[in-house]
Amino acid sequence: MVGKNQTRFVVWAPERDQVEVELVGQDRKVKLQKNDDGYHVGLVEDCGPSERYFYRCDGGPQRPDPVSRYQPLGVHGPSEVVDPAFDWTDSQWQSVERDDLIIYEMHVGAFTPSGTFLSAIERLDELVELGVTAIELMPLADAAGRWNWGYDGVNWFAPNHNYGTPAELKQLVNAAHHKGLAVIVDVVYNHLGPEGNYLGEFAPYFSAKHGTPWGDAPNFDDPQWGSEVRRYVIANAIYWLDEFHIDGLRVDAIHCTRDDSDPHIVAEMSDAVRRWSEAANRNVLLIAESNVHDPEMNRPLAEGGIGFDAQWCDDFLHSVFAVVRPGEQLSNRVYRSGTDLAQSLSKGFVFEGTMRKDRSRQTPETRTDTHGLVYSIQNHDFIGNHPLAKRLDQLTSPAAQKSAAALLCLTPAIPMLFMGEEFASSRPFLFFVDFTDAELQEAVVNGRRLEYPQHDWSEGLLPTEEAAFRSSKLESREDGNQSMWRWYQSLIQLRKQWRAAGLLSDANIETHYDSDSSLYQICYVQGTQTATVYSRLTTNETDAGPISIEPTGDLLLDSLPETSVEHVGVNQLLPNQAKIFYSSGS
Q1: pLDDT tens-digit profile of 395-414?
Q2: Cβ atoms within 10 Å, residue 459
Q3: What's the pLDDT band for 459 if we cut at 50, 70, 90?
Q4: N or C: where does the chain have the smaller number of CB atoms within 10 Å of the terminal CB?
């Protein structure tokens, strides 16, 4: 849009002779002019905000804009002209430094009963009270149907219309900033969803040699068209940062982003975002979902790396699960009970690989820099890829979750919570889609079973059932486990204190593991200060008795204070109990 009553339209369609803009309700078509770069361009009068339109390529069917800013009627409907103006009041916002991140992952549609950007604002205060410093929104790009996890997005520039308008997303971000919360958005650049994906009708966006299990792979390394496809992705990344004041991007399944060219599209995007960030004087965070440790990901571009700030390292999550549920696997990688968690704590990771090098189990001699790793004990995949979408406390016990949370919050790595984890939500987070095509619906159901054959899929809701979405709506904090909530709040407060004091860092850490008692110990020593985290994780709380520990200093936190008073002393630890001690040495 360039004025109140005029809009400039631009669409890349290099192999199309004629592209028309068809204004809905006006019975008016405007032919665009094709330039030498394959872009069709035109300035349309009497066309302002809220005007709806389609494109027609060479007289073909009506199609939404490939860079639509809003799809009010969904992915098959008309695009809408959006006025980008917004009365931002966050000019003093400085974002959150990487080492201060405590991330809260959420699905906007399931976070509140109404599932909108505006209703999410109403729950921000409780997140501030909890102590998290950033919210991470699962993908917002519009996807088919009334509900979707977001990884089937096809309108990359259009916030999901089920959640509200672009202006309402800005209201959410603006409100978050005023409450001291950074906003990170999950973006998907390795594929597009299977329904409503019309990009290929405009231009050669998709690769003939690469593919993904989830949908078409972008044509990043095509010698003729790759540069424009790359430009499209980079423009989208910067769009979220610029248009919506987003503080960071979490790039989905980065290892599945297929590109044989040099530099890799992810490195080129990282460079472009860095240059934009410097020019805008904004501290933008880039987080990769690499799943396992990638030694190139956090390495600066100037040193031959990818230049990201942080990366997901799911080794921690799966290693915890291997301890509390041995023999079960929620990953295609096999994790060993006990020793893999010990290695994650001492070295930072278990498996390693890059975007072009296969993943393999490693036994590193030295500790990696875990300040740039994102750890969790639950996330959307962990819960949703289980047939019944059970949460950790339901698969184990509240005590086991508390003990694991102590390790999560008090390692140098970036902790991430999944919505409702902090009060042990009783609600599942099922995988849900709302495709209209019957064949796609069947493919989703079968695909889940093929991707995770280790599970029994005979029970539970199908992802195509409306109840899968409705039952995943998060309840209120008041309806949750208040003891769990207070435990998480205390751990987060302690993390912030130790971080501010310079205590909680890779430079100060020592870890120990006792296999006989399943005891994990983290110790930080800095000058005269000593802080110790004891966490005992077991599969059965009733068959094992207390063990003795030799702490230094005063007891700060106890995950089972009521049990300790009745049965064990300060220097003893029950199964699935955590205790934290501190000594100033004075």
Answers
A1: 999 999 999 999 999 999 99
A2: 7
A3: confident
A4: C
**Nearest in space to 411 (alpha carbons), one of 456, 458, 369:** 369
Query: What ranges in 202-361 are assigned the alpha helix state H?
Result: 226-244, 265-280, 315-324, 339-347
- Nearest Cα to 254, choosing from 333, 318, 187? 187
Looking at residue 563, what is its pLDDT? 65
pTM (global) more than 0.85:
yes
CB 470 within 8 A of CB 461: no
DSSP 293: B
DSSP state of 177: H
Could you give the maximum distance between any two Cα atoms of the chain, in Å? 82
Taking CA atoms, 100 is separated from 96, 330, 366, 372, 414, in Å, by 6, 29, 24, 11, 8
**% of the chain exceeding 90 in pLDDT:** 86
Q: Is 356 exposed, middle or buried (0-12, 13-18, 19+ CB in 10 A)?
A: exposed
Return the axis-axis angle of helices 226-244 and 265-280, rounded to nearest 10°.
40
Q: Quote the CA–CA distance of 102 and 174 in Å, as a whole number.
A: 19
**What is the rounded average pLDDT for all residues in the chain?**
94
What positions carry a catalytic annotation? 252, 289
Order of strands, sheet of 33-34, starting from the edge strand that comes earlier in the sequence: 6-12, 39-45, 33-34
Interval 273-294 mean pLDDT: 95
Angstrom distances, CA of residue 335 to CA of 316, 342, 401: 10, 12, 19
161: tokens are 């219309």
Helix extents (H) in 423-518: 438-451, 466-470, 482-500
Q: Buried b / exposed e across 406-433, counting CB within 10 Å, b at 16+?
A: bbbbbbbbbbbbbbbbbbbbebbbbbbb
* CB-CB contact of 499 with 493 (8 Å): no
Name the one residue in this structure whose structure tokens are 């020793």: 339
pLDDT for the residue numbered 385? 83
Per-residue 3-state assignment (H helix, E strand, C coil) for 523-583 = EEEECCEEEEEEEECCCCCCCCCCEECCCCCEEEEECCHHHHHHHCCCCEECCCCEEEEEE
The two structure tokens encoding residue 68: 């639509």
Collapsed DSSP state (helix, strand, coil) of residue 438: helix
Q: For residue 294, give Cα distances in angstroms to 204, 255, 371.
A: 31, 9, 14
d(CA 313, CA 31): 50
Amino acid identity, residue 340? Answer: D
Per-residue tokens: 439 = 């064949």
Q: What is the mean pLDDT of residues 405-433?
A: 97
What pLDDT, in 10s, does the model give residues 337-368?
999 999 999 999 999 998 888 889 999 999 99
CB atoms within 10 A of CB 200: 12
Q: Please state, for a pLDDT cut of 70, what percent of the chain lies above it.
A: 97
For residue 263, say if its preceding peptide bond is cis, omega within 30 degrees of 0.
yes
The stretch 541-558 carries a mean pLDDT of 89
